[in-house]
From TrEMBL:
Transmembrane segments: none
Annotated protein name in UniProt: Endonuclease NucS
Gene: nucS
Keyword field: Cytoplasm, DNA-binding, Endonuclease, Hydrolase, Nuclease
A Pfam cross-reference name: NucS_C
Amino acid sequence: MDYTGRLNAHLPLATRVLMHKGDGSLLIHSDGGSYKPLNWMSPPCRLDAIDVDDELASAGVIEAWRVTHQKTGDTLTVRIHEIIHDTTHDLGVDPGLIKDGVEADLQRLLAEQVDLVSEGSSLVRREYPTAIGPVDLMIRDASGAPIAVEIKRRGDIDGVEQLTRYLDLLGRDPLLTGIRGVFAAQEIKPQARVLARDRGIECLVLDYERMKGIDSGVPTLF
């Protein structure tokens, strides 16, 4: 197999898995290396059969392909010496990847379990509006004091900065006097913790499995 174009690459003769997908792409896999192909041609591309001449046939080639990228002109030439198994399947319409544990899921679960933020608290609103965008949760603790909660899957400095800006705007509302902030995430980076502490913001690590009702055994830290 030879790739010719912006770079040149050669794969020596070996047993491979060739995957020709419905979008036209061709992927060449070995038995190792996890999911990553050894070589490939991404769409838009075209696959054409090459005539097997006497020279190729004498080398043991029984079938040959040339895959050409329609924008760059790069080519991938495949010479097949033996077909161990050949099968075709129509996979139908792909519904796409449905992710579990995205920020929307965390927000919904935490809105239903605001005691994790402050015992005895109550939810005011999800997506509480500000002039620069909504803060994820607005709640009030048992004494009625407002708390703004920003939720991330992985908490970094940018998330703390975002919550800081929300708190600055919300704190100007006389109905939200004394508002404090909670930065909640499944994982919070050390630098984000330091910045949050400096800004007077509490950090809350969310155990997603436990919040779904599956006890993971991992303690929740504040």
